[in-house]
């Protein structure tokens, strides 16, 4: 019999009733150290007092009004994001997928309005993940995501990852935009080398192509800068954000330059919930905290500590791990052939540690950005126990 909850997830037999900082607690009292943070969503951990206050304060006043009216919290959050980024304007969504949808629409409308309606193709990359809508799976059509869901939408061309020559060769008169994650998340924590992001920006400039960055996972302080592209010193035309920006409240956004957004006039796009008062009250507080230079400094310092610890962990378990990679607090342990990332994650559960697998046989570490040094050390100790039990299965 089909479960009451549509069984599209292979769920771990864990269920949490409470969270505090980097810790999640089961009904029986067992505490787990959370190095997943809702897959980069709980940027400030669980039940952060400032976010609880922002949410409850707003909840007592006004949850929702339609985008038919002005929403002060939405305007404040948009202004803050504009002040902190390349963007001139922001549209709020409820998820990363919806942000991807708008980014695609915006890029096509741009060329339509410029009198070049043939420029519709969006170049995307192997290993990419942009969400689960028909548009998003057409943009990143891995077999697992698209099988049985055809027909897919036309107008996307997927290129090999980190292959500048392939992008150069694919640039023809139909290309509207390039859409890319500066650090692939689901694809296995694969950072695009800085020089390649710079070269891509230059290529887009030369051909007029719009550069869309998907920072749904790597944005909002995750890499130690507010946005991952800042490391390369280049800016996109359009950017998708979600996950961390709501700190656990469903919120996403598309940020764009005035030029890229020129076609999105009244009536061209909308969302019932997107950017409602409750979401934006929380999002504003998250953004204020995460964009603080001192906070980002601390993320980079903690990332250094975790990096050092992971280097030692890999050295201690060469039979389990091949290496690690990533940026800031977005890290992946690459497992040896013959060792399944899923088995390491499951062994982590045994050590009361939460991690998440990714493609390319990688174990992802996406802790809350405000994780403490002691918790980092504790996570490393638990990873060590997990790796030991994978290397020598007790059966
Ligand atoms: C999670 C994710 C998405 C999709 O976001 P949802 O909120 O699940 O719709 C899109 N792009 C990237 C890079 C992601 O990590």
Description:
The protein is of the alpha/beta class and 395 residues long. The chain has two domains: 16-34 and 293-389, Aspartate Aminotransferase, domain 1, CATH 3.90.1150.10; 49-290, Type I PLP-dependent aspartate aminotransferase-like (Major domain) (Aspartate Aminotransferase, domain 2), CATH 3.40.640.10. The protein is built from twelve helices and 17 strands. The strands form four sheets. Strands 4-12-11-10-7-5-6 form a seven-stranded mixed sheet, sandwiched between helices. A hairpin with a 4-residue loop joins β2 and β3. The relative contact order is 0.16. The mean pLDDT is 97. The site of pyridoxal-5'-phosphate (PLP) has 15 residues, from α4.
Computed CA radius of gyration, to the nearest angstrom: 21 Å
Q: Distance between termini?
A: 31 Å
User: What pattern of helices and strands is seen along the backbone?
Assistant: EEEHHHEHEHHEHEEEHEEEHHEEHEEEH
Structural class of the secondary elements? alpha/beta
**Any idea how many domains?**
2
- In round numbers, the mean pLDDT is 97
**CATH topology category name of the largest domain:** Aspartate Aminotransferase, domain 2
Number of strands: 17
Task: Say which molecules are bound, naming each kind only once.
Answer: pyridoxal-5'-phosphate
Give a quick account of the main beta sheet: strands, pairing sense, barrel closure.
7 strands, mixed
Strand content: 15-25%
Major sheet strand order: 4-12-11-10-7-5-6
Judging by the overall fold, what is the CATH architecture of the largest domain?
A: 3-Layer(aba) Sandwich
Oligomer: single chain
Shape: globular
Taking pLDDT < 50 over at least 5 consecutive residues as the criterion, the unreliable ranges are none
Number of helices: 12
- The helix fraction, in percent, is 25-40%
CATH class of the largest domain, named Alpha Beta
Would you identify the CATH H-level superfamily of the largest domain? Type I PLP-dependent aspartate aminotransferase-like (Major domain)
């Amino acid at each position: 019999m089909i479960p009451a909850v549509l069984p599209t997830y292979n769920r771990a037999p864990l269920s949490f009733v409470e969270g505090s900082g980097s810790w999640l607690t089961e009904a029986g009292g067992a505490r787990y150290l959370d190095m997943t943070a809702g897959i980069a969503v709980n940027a400030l951990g669980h039940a952060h007092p400032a976010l609880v206050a922002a949410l409850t304060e707003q909840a007592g006043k006004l949850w929702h009004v339609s985008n038919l009216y002005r929403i002060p919290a939405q305007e404040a959050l948009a202004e803050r994001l504009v002040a902190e980024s390349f963007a001139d304007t922001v549209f709020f969504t409820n998820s990363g997928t919806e942000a991807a949808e708008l980014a695609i629409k915006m890029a096509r409308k741009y060329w339509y309005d410029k009198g070049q309606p043939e420029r519709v193709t969006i170049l995307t990359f192997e290993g990419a993940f942009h969400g689960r809508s028909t548009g998003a799976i057409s943009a990143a059509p891995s077999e697992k995501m698209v099988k049985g869901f055809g027909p897919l939408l036309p107008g996307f061309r997927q290129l090999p990852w980190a292959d500048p020559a392939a992008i150069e060769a694919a640039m023809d008169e139909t290309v509207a935009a390039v859409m890319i994650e500066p650090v692939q998340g689901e694809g296995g924590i694969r950072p695009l080398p800085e020089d390649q992001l710079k070269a891509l920006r230059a290529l887009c400039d030369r051909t007029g192509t719009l550069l869309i960055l998907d920072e749904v996972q790597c944005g909002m302080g995750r890499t130690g800068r507010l946005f991952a592209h800042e490391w390369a010193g280049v800016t996109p035309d359009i950017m998708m954000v979600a996950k961390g920006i709501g700190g656990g409240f469903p919120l996403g956004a598309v940020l764009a330059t005035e030029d890229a957004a020129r076609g999105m006039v009244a009536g061209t796009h909308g969302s019932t919930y997107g950017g409602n008062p409750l979401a934006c009250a929380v999002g504003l507080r998250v953004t204020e905290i995460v964009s603080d230079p001192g906070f980002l400094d601390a993320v980079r310092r903690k990332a250094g500590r975790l990096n050092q610890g992971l280097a030692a962990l890999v050295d201690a378990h060469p039979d389990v791990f091949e290496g690690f990679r990533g940026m800031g607090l977005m890290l992946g342990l690459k497992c040896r052939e013959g060792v399944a990332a899923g088995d390491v994650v499951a062994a982590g559960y045994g050590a009361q540690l939460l991690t998440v697998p990714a493609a390319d046989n990688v174990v992802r570490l996406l802790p809350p950005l405000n994780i403490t040094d002691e918790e980092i050390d504790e996570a490393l100790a638990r990873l060590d126990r997990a790796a030991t039990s994978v290397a020598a299965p007790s059966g």
